[in-house]
Amino acid sequence: MLLKEIFPLSNKMKVYAFVGPSGTGKSYRAQMVAGEKDTHFIIDDGLLIKDNEVIAGESAKKAPTKVATVKHALFYEESEKEEIIKALRKYRPQSILILGTSDGMVKKIAENLGLPEIEETIYITDVATEQEMETARKIRVTEGKHVIPVPTFEIKKDFSGYLLDPLQIFKSKGKGQKPYISEKSIIRPTFSYMGRFTISDLVFRQIVEYLASQTPGIYKILKTRVENYGEGAKIYMEVTIVYGYNVVEGLKEFKEKAKKEIEKLTAMNVVELDVVAKNIYVPEKDE
Questions:
Q1: What is the mean pLDDT of residues 164-192?
Q2: What is the CATH architecture of 201-286?
Q3: Domain boundaries of the chain, sorted by first residue
């Protein structure tokens, strides 16, 4: 699918590239570079991003290996190309910024998506000092972290089950204009220089059981089951509730609190949390 099939030739898109070695801070600075080129669209790591929103694609960092990640980022698969092209047809951007680790990579991405030739290439060395790039490299190698230039809530569903952390930085829109908060997501990919990261099911169980024990309306925990589906944890609980406790509202509130607390403490997603009231405890009977 070529660009001329998507847009009239009179409405030719300007294509910019932002190039730098892996782990030098491209994604961190992507919005700044895009802003300087007055473009609202970024292609980074298999994603098509409009301002602070992912509008198409799936992050290459979900791929299980580095090789698969590179292929995904280059849009080798027809289905991956089609999703991005469909979004381009819908939004009709006047300009776009492509991120890549080399001139060859950004050129290949443009070719695979049928975009015009790259008009200008900005290099990481143009916008970052050697010290800044070295710091970014150390973080990538020692902590396995990667930045995606969208808010954490935007990318969280796509990265269900992986480590996520929000990052907010103040940016200036330009001379005389008020600064704004640029939100980003820090993730650890499926693969990592640090090796595989796992959390035992027992950890989830202990957290949720402790929270239940601190809930006045829950008298006793009868059963807890935790399963990992790759997308995150699925938790099932059976409890005895105290007579007079509003079961519907009370358990709903407990589930929301437990889900939030588990994700905060483990940085992992809770895909599903089911709490079933099996018995009722009547205090008067013990007197």
A1: 58
A2: 2-Layer Sandwich (3.30)
A3: 3-187, 201-286
pLDDT in tens, 103-157: 999 999 999 999 999 999 999 999 989 998 888 887 776 666 777 777 666 666 6
Using H for helix, E for strand and C for coil, what is the string for the chain? Answer: CCHHHCCCHHHCCEEEEEECCCCCCHHHHHHHHHHHCCCCEEEECCEEEECCEEEEECCHHHCCCHHHHHHHHCCCCHHHHHHHHHHHHHHCCCEEEEEECCHHHHHHHHHHCCCCCCCEEEEHHHHCCHHHHHHHHHHHHHHCCEEECCCHHHHCCCCCCCCEEEEEEEEECCCCCCEEEEEEEEECCCCCCCCCCCCCHHHHHHHHHHHHHCCCCEEEEEEEEEEECCCCEEEEEEEEEECCCCHHHHHHHHHHHHHHHHHHHHCCCEEEEEEEEEEEECHHHHC
Question: Where do we find the tokens 């991405």?
Answer: 109
* 253 against 61, higher pLDDT: 253
Say which CATH architecture domain 3-187 belongs to: 3-Layer(aba) Sandwich (3.40)
- Is 23:103 a contact under the CB 8 Å cutoff? no
